[in-house]
Amino acid sequence: MKEARAIGSDRVTVDPPSNGRPIVAIFKEMVGHISEIVRSEILLVSLEFREEFAERKNAVISVAVASMLLLYGGAFLLLAIVYGLSTVWPAWLSALTVGVALALIGGLLLSSGVKKLKNPKST
């Protein structure tokens, strides 16, 4: 079955596909392949995400453990300062001095941070 169309003065014949399949079947197959490609891409993205997450998980655990150790290390350093001062002053006064110094430093840092948040261009 050949279809003839007139183009100018020439006649062009369009043959059906050589395998005998209708065009609609070919388009359905193409759509099926496209959906298969999309599913494969989604699977690939999820696999890449899992691999990247696994790689970063160890780094996050290391950072968390290091943060805890630094926190405890800082606490023991402060305790050492209190003990060192307690050889000169009474223990309560040593602890009070270290506590007030930390509170002042923390208050200044907090005040500076709040100002920077309110006026970010004045840094």
Query: Which residues sit in consecutive blocks of at least 5 with pLDDT less than 50?
Result: none
Number of helices: 2
Distance between the termini: 80 Å
Q: Quick check: average pLDDT?
A: 85
Major beta-sheet overview: 2 strands, antiparallel
As a whole number of angstroms, the C-alpha radius of gyration is: 37 Å
Please tally the β strands and state the result. Answer: 2
Q: What do these coordinates show?
A:
74% of the residues lie in helices and 8% in strands. With 123 residues, the chain is mainly alpha-helical. The chain folds into two domains: 1-71; 86-123. It has a two-stranded antiparallel sheet with strand order 1-2. Strand 1 and strand 2 form a beta hairpin. The mean pLDDT is 85.
